[in-house]
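Thread amino acids onto this structure.
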């Protein structure tokens, strides 16, 4: 089993996940033990306010790891003009 190295202690990590069939795209924010929860919460607030993300799920794992799932609706746009 391969172990993942932990990121720098001051920054939570974020990963975008998108399924073409799902009307939402997801942003998974991971906060490792020893990282600042206040800084992570501030980042979540900024994502919600400026990026139109909404909090879907929060999980606290044994060992102190937090994972937050944010989602936002994907806008489907159809072409209205034909460009040659």
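Threaded sequence (84 positions):
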């Amino acid at each position: 089993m391969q172990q993942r190295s932990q990121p720098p202690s001051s920054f939570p990590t974020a990963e975008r996940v998108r399924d073409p069939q799902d009307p939402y795209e997801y942003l998974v924010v991971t906060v490792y033990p020893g990282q600042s929860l206040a800084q992570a919460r501030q980042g979540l607030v900024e994502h919600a306010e400026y990026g139109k993300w909404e909090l879907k799920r929060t999980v606290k794992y044994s060992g102190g790891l937090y994972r937050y799932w944010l989602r936002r609706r994907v806008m489907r746009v159809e072409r209205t003009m034909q460009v040659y």
